[in-house]
Amino acid sequence: DLPDRVRIHEVGARDGLQNEKSAVPTEVKAEFIRRLADAGLTTIEATSFVHPAWVPQLADAEDLFPQVADLPVALPVLVPNQRGLDRALALGARRVAVFASATESFAKANLNRTLDESLAVFEPVVRRAKDEGVQVRGYVSMCFGDPWEGAVPLHQVVRVCRALRDMGCDELSLGDTIGVATPGHVLELLSLLNEEGVPTNVLGVHFHDTYGQALANTYAALEHGVTTVDASAGGLGGCPYAKSATGNLATEDLVWMLHGLGIDTGVDLGRLVATSAWMADQLGRPSPSRTVRALSHK
Ligand code: HMG
Ligand code: MG
């Protein structure tokens, strides 16, 4: 059975823009986020409080966040450690996300830590955030394949998911960082997680569209009962620390499918397409989203 409503966790301003070669002006990012909110998105990941040398594209987080903080939407931000949480809390962030990996290689590449070291870093971060009444999302990257290690055993993913849940993460997002998943694999992982005590209602899915499977994978997840889906407006995105990662599932492509299925999202597709077409102009190249291209008159 498909759900009646899906909550879209919009990641374009973070996952999308963290991968742009050119620096996007802070004012353009703020305008992007305002327009996404105006299009009806209610959860808009705004930026990351990571080391500025690691992700220079988001080094303006302190300038950006206050410009959008008053919007009537949830604005989660990524925090890799206590220093990141300090920065986020100082600006009044009410939602944060830690980001773990199912593999050692990516933990090292992305966080400069072993997998267990990174979990040890997150533990007090999650505890402190929860004590402050801040909602915490836990990302798990490389759930379906890793560019260095290849296939990722399901039990490795389960272990990291359980560790993040035990710490107190309210929600998990299963990341297909390099976009290699296929629907059967998605269903296998979701079923195993349920068997191992991780219920579907705390799970979101985060697909990158490298192999064109993101929508098919999303459909499989919806049939399993997942109701939180990550997507990026215009299909922006990738990850600077994972070679062969391309953009996320485009929010417009997702909305087209969901509305076609009669599933409510609260999103005004016309306004969203106009926003992504505007952003594509700012970036100087067309959106990779099929729906944006079909519906924008250029
Ligand atoms: P490190 O070099 O090991 O840092 O990097 P450290 O802990 O050794 O600290 C070194 C210095 O950095 C210290 O300063 C810290 O204060 C400072 P010093 O004492 O030398 O003057 N520092 C910071 N400064 C500002 N903000 C901070 C911070 N932390 C330390 N938060 C670190 C470790 C985690 C910092 C680094 O590896 C990092 O920033 N990584 C972030 C990488 C990233 O953002 N990747 C993209 C997001 S993940 C993703 O895209 C996947 C996802 O979309 C899901 C999917 O698709 O799978 C979520
Ligand atoms: Mg991602």
From TrEMBL:
It holds the Pfam family HMGL-like. GO terms for molecular function: hydroxymethylglutaryl-CoA lyase activity; metal ion binding. One of its GO terms (biological process) is ketone body biosynthetic process. Residues 6-273 form the Pyruvate carboxyltransferase domain. InterPro entries: Aldolase_TIM, HMGL, PYR_CT. It comes from the Bacteria. Keywords: Lyase, Metal-binding. PROSITE patterns: PYR_CT. NCBIfam families: PRK05692.1. Belongs to the HMG-CoA lyase family. This is Hydroxymethylglutaryl-CoA lyase. It comes from Streptomyces griseoruber.
